[in-house]
Amino acid sequence: MTKTRRSGPDTMCLEEGIPVGKWRILKNIGIISLAFLLQFTAFQGTGSLQSSINGGLGTLSLSAVFGAIVVSCVFIPTLAIKKFTAKWTLCFSMLCYVPYLAAQFYPRTYTLIPAGVLVGLGAAPMWAAQSSYLSQVAHVYGRVTNQRVETIIVRFFGIFYLCWQSAELWGNLISGLVLSSDKNPQNTTTDYTLCGANFCSSNFDEIPNLDRPPDHEIFTIMGIYLACIFLAVLLLTCFLDPLSTFGLKQRDEEKVTVGHLLVATFRQLKRINQMLLVPLTIFIGIEQANFAADLTQAFIGCTLGIDQIGFILVGFGVCNCVCSVLFGFLTKMYGRIKILLIGLFSISACYFLMLFWKPTPDEKWMFFLICGLYAVGDSILQIQMNGIYGAIFAKNEEAAFSNYRLWESTGCLVMYALSTTLCARTKLIGALGVLAVGVTGWTIVEFRVKNGKISHETKREDSPT
Predict the structure, then answer these.
(1) Sign of CA dihedral 134, 131, 460, 394
(2) What is the phi/psi pair of residue 296, to 5°?
(3) Nearest-angstrom CA–CA distance, 69 and 278
């Protein structure tokens, strides 16, 4: 007869009669991390090329992705995990990305847009299932090894995000190698004054460097990417242990109704600190969209050619991985405020460079500099903002992180939707304006935290009424 114990009031059930080995747990962390690396090698590689190979339709399809995420992040994850469990939610959600890559073989409005919506509907439950799985097995590992659960969670998520962020490197390396494999060097007569901050979608057809690559090269890339997704799903299906293997049962939080979560998400907006953090959260989405839509098309593709996008972005991927590890370590030494200031300075410097620099092929090193600054800012902003939300809203994490995903996705959606109507300069200036408002809001939050004005905001609300 087995006994049931709880490792904490808000954690899972663990039956003592089920043997658990730490290496088996670590194996599952490795499997889930490798699967996401393969998955986002495919998706991030595809996303980086959209504005260049499919023009305005490509950015519209990405706006469809994030528009669907805005809706699905509130309604779908709770129902999916409750219905299918974390393991199978991961598998089914990853398969939602397949039609989007398949649509690249025949990119039309009626293929790319619906496929983008399907990606968005699958993305939210996929990320929720990943977070649920890692956090729950971290509790088991903590009990098995007699270590603090908080330390194990940070370690497991650190391993995962290192693998996930390296996908940027591999996805762009694949596209760069394929697109340059049979490239014949030639002198184009591109008017470089149309590139950079001066780039407008209306001038797309006037820039030879943005001519769509041959279909066989695009098909080769997408074939490799599709193989990556199928391999990721196969790994999860065959080698990822379900949570029941460790005696874990559905947590109480997972039994909450969708209506409860929806009310809690918008109730969270009544909190002063949450409202003040919304602009900076939106900016995080905006800068990700700027990177995928503008830096790749208006700067790299327009000036150097589409075949060089992958190679330049490899530098971004490497820098992003290094910065995630480095600044995660430095945060413990210097605190979040100093590290976040470094990230804000880096992303601001990057935007001002993009705003005033006139790109030419002779200054190729500048593209790497901009990507490096972008990587530093992006990695710090994402890590530190997650930390801020977790620290300030510790008693209402579910609603707080639902807001984080909601407003980040909103920033991406708005920027992608405007990509075909606004020129790059206007978008850069607008992003800097949102950043200024966001920094102001964050500064006020830090003052409120310093003065102890958050006690009423961290009180847990277990009922939407």
Answers:
(1) positive
(2) -70, -40
(3) 17
pLDDT of residue 257: 56
DSSP assignment of 210-239 equals GSPPPHHHHHHHHHHHHHHHHHHHHHHHHH
- What tokens were used for 339? 């590290």
Residue 337's identity, in one-letter code, is I
Q: What is the value of pTM for the model shown?
A: 0.78
d(CA 438, CA 156): 30
pLDDT tens digits, 16-54? 444 557 888 889 999 999 999 999 999 988 988 887 788
pLDDT bin (cut points 50, 70, 90) of residue 72 is confident
Region of 257 please: left (phi>0), alpha (psi -120 to 50) or beta: beta
**Structure-block tokens of residue 142:** 């903590």
Closest by CA to 462, choosing from 285, 257, 297, 311, is: 257
Question: Which pair of tokens denotes residue 115?
Answer: 């496929």
Residue in the structure block whose two tokens are 């039309």? 108
Structure letter (DSSP) for residue 293: I
Return the amino acid letter for 232: A
